[in-house]
Amino acid sequence: MSKSNEVNNSHASSSDSDKSHTSETNLNNLSKQKNLSNKTNPTTKNRSFYSRIFPLIGMIIGIMAMFGSMISAVVFYYGSSTVKLIIISLLFYQYLFAKKSHAIRSFLLFFRTTDYFDEYKIIYEEELLKQKSLFVVHPHGICGVSFALLQGYCEMLYENSIGLVSSVLINLPISGILAKWMGASSVKQKNFEKLMSEDKNICFLPGGFEEATITNTNEDRVYLSERKGFIKSALRYGYNLYPIYTFGENKLYLTCNWFEKIRLLINRLKCPSAIFFGLFFFIPFYNVRLITVVGPKLTLPQIAEPTNDDVNMYHKLYVENLKALFNRNKKLYGGSEELIIY
Fold first, then answer.
1. Is 54 exposed, middle or buried (0-12, 13-18, 19+ CB in 10 A)?
2. 3-state helix, strand, coil in the chain (%, to 5)
3. Residue 256 contacts by C-beta under 8 Å, 6 or more apart in sequence?
4. Both ends of the chain: CA-CA distance in Å?
């Protein structure tokens, strides 16, 4: 195993400058983290057809699982009896039999989807705890691509945390099956606190549909000002919060930010309203550096009944920590001048 605990699939020549970053002084403490690769991947220009086509297939599988689920209701309504029977069978399997599968994960890892991008890596600024940790991932982006990769390719998170996703995706066919194969669960508050009462590690995206809606190709944005529920729950159970930010997530698609306020209102109905396009509309662009930085933990005290003042104080502290993480890494990894908080 490499002495560096950076998960690195780099096609770029910027690794020398990355080594100067102060966060990497802590990486040697992460010997238990499993590396994706100990080698620098070939440049895009010199890569073989084989090395390009399999990551693309892996990306298509993931994206189609999400978009296929969203149109399944329409297909069910207008489809033939055979189509309806297939969808009902999928739902039957999903609710009764689908569960976390190491075999399915190994099959998906075979495609090495991270090689699809110009560069992909995960950087840890300190050693991760294996208990009572809440991994808070930003930004959601259009499709939550980096969240899915983090859950799949970070060994520690896959083995020792539970990814929480929208109940919409959990309950729809195809995406629900894939989510359960990867060990994901619903982000509903009741489930959230149940897992915390068991001291389980949790990984989730607080921004949701709203953060997808405000995604801007040219700016780094997060939807966080009204997201305080996770702070209140973390205070009740005395959790450690790890802010996680992925640089480049907002560049995976071209976005249109017209009528943003109206579309945010639509989100209140639990309906996605992002306007975007990529390769063949839904496939993300490949010429992107996707760098995920896991920041230092923020340890919260345990307060059985936190007041609004308690929640507001620690929410403000969390936002400050997230901004600090962004600011110390933005020049290295192509972030915008400022992290905009909605």
1. middle
2. 45, 15, 35
3. 275, 276
4. 41
Alpha carbon distances (Å) from 3 to 30, 38, 68, 320 = 9, 9, 41, 31
CB of 341 closer than 8 Å to CB of 222? yes
Which tokens in the block code for residue 36?
A: 């994706």
For residue 8, being part of any structural domain is answered with: no
d(CA 247, CA 146): 9
| Helix or strand (DSSP H, E) at 304 | none
Residue 202 token pair: 């949790």
| Cα–Cα dist 232/315, whole Å | 9
* H helix count then E strand count, the chain: 14, 13
| pLDDT tens by residue, 270-326 | 777 888 989 888 899 999 999 999 999 999 999 999 999 999 999 999 999 999 999
Task: Read off the pLDDT of each residue in 256-277 and give the average, rounded to a whole number.
Answer: 83
DSSP labels for 13-57?
S-HHHHTTSGGGGGGGG-TTSPPS-SSPPPPGGG--HHHHHHHHH
Distance CA 205, CA 211 (A): 9
Model confidence at 4: pLDDT above 70: no
H or E stretch at 203: strand 202-204
The enclosing H or E element of 235 equals helix 229-237
The reply to whether 220 falls in a domain is yes
Question: In three state form, how does the secondary structure of 152-197 look?
Answer: HHCHHHHHHCEEEECHHHHHCCCHHHHHHHCCCEECCHHHHHHHHH
Cα-based angle 106, 110, 111 (whole degrees, multiple of 5) = 130
**Residue 211: inside a domain:** yes
Domain range for 146:
34-341
Dihedral, 16, 47, 119, 127 alpha carbons, nearest 10: -80
Please count the structural domains in the chain. Answer: 1
Q: How far apart are the C-alpha atoms of 283 and 233, rounded to whole Å?
A: 36
Host H or E run for residue 285: none
The separation between CA 311 and the C-alpha centre of its own chain, rounded to angstroms, equals 24
Q: Is residue 255 part of a domain?
A: yes
